[in-house]
Design brief:
There is one protein chain. It contains ten helices and six strands, in the order E-H-E-H-E-E-H-H-E-H-E-H-H-H-H-H. Helix 8 packs across helix 10. It has a six-stranded mixed sheet. The two termini are about 25 Å apart. It has a domain of about 200 residues: Rossmann fold (3-Layer(aba) Sandwich). The chain is of the alpha/beta class and about 290 residues long. The protein is globular and about 50 Å long. The chain binds iron/sulfur cluster (SF4). The site of iron/sulfur cluster (SF4) has 13 residues, from helix 4.
Length: about 290
């Protein structure tokens, strides 16, 4: 059976990367160019994605005639139950300065203080609350708002990403969620080169290196990627270093904070032969490509 054929209610994760875009196309193709009525494509905007990502998602919707729902976290801690957790936005109205991300961090800070009497914390490897709240939770809220109790979560993971696939399958086996993650591109044996070949044939593309995808300076990216991004756009570090200073915490304990990374980027920009290789250990991001 074609792995891109959906068999029931489905939430299709569109992260704004080439892999999930390719997956969306293959799903459309498998269904004669239109999503089945029980399938819903979502993009959960953190406000820290680069403009190229937003343009790319908008182009997919327009070129392929597919509805991609854009949503953003908008919850304040202590609001009544009926207050919304997310709002629907579009290309024009989407946040571009980290507003949903900041709101979620404020929510989490207030929650920890009120219910645990603990200080603020930023996303980290033992508490990945940015993916959990900004992506997973509001996606689930929207599926429930559409009337679903159970559904499949369709995630863009390729065959050459076995560790990410294995983590998804382990989560399925634990059965904590009301959905199973399904990875049709993994099942179809799609690798990075297949995705690149697909986009080379399209009239539009992401328009930047995939390394710059997801949140621009995501704390899971390796140091070399962060330094390159900061060198290209020094203003990109302002939100990240400001967030660390404001909450009195760091995203990563195992390397310099964002302020120091900015300094490092500036210093290294003055050196023409700096070897980035030793900084290039990357951590796979659950938010997907
Ligand atoms: S891309 Fe990184 S920073 Fe952004 S939501 Fe995902 S894990 Fe968090």
């Amino acid at each position: 059976m074609n792995p891109y054929l959906l068999t029931g209610p489905a939430q299709i994760g569109v992260s704004g990367g080439r892999t999930s875009g390719h997956m969306l196309w293959k799903i459309l193709e498998a269904h004669g160019g239109k999503l089945p009525k029980d399938a819903h494509a979502f993009f959960q905007n953190t406000g820290k994605e680069r403009e190229e990502t937003l343009v790319f998602i908008d182009a997919m919707a327009k070129h392929w005639g597919v509805n991609i729902v854009w949503m953003e976290w908008c919850r304040v801690y202590g609001q009544p139950d009926e207050a919304p957790w997310y709002k629907i936005v579009d290309f024009e109205t989407a946040s571009r300065n980290g507003e949903p991300f900041t709101m979620m961090l404020e929510y989490y800070e207030a929650y920890r203080k009120a219910e645990k009497n603990l200080p603020a914390v930023l996303p980290n490897f033992s508490n990945n609350m940015c993916t959990a709240y900004l992506k997973v939770k509001i996606g689930e809220k929207h599926m429930r708002a559409l009337g679903y109790d159970e559904w499949d979560c369709i995630v863009g993971i390729r065959y050459d990403e076995p560790r990410r696939y294995s983590r998804m399958m382990t989560a399925n086996e634990r059965g904590n969620a009301r959905w199973d993650s399904v990875c049709p591109s993994y099942v179809a044996g799609i690798i990075k080169e297949d995705v690149a070949a697909f986009w080379a044939e399209q009239p539009f593309d992401l328009g930047m290196d995939s390394d710059y995808g997801n949140c621009d300076l995501c704390w899971k990216k390796n140091e070399a990627k962060l330094i390159r991004t900061i060198q290209e756009d020094p203003s990109s570090v302002i939100w990240w270093s400001g967030t660390e200073e404001r909450f009195g915490q760091v995203f990563r304990q195992d390397r310099p904070n964002y302020r120091a990374l900015a300094w490092s980027a500036d210093q290294r920009a003055r050196q023409t032969d700096f070897d980035f290789d030793y900084l290039a250990e990357d951590i796979g991001c659950f938010c997907g490509d």
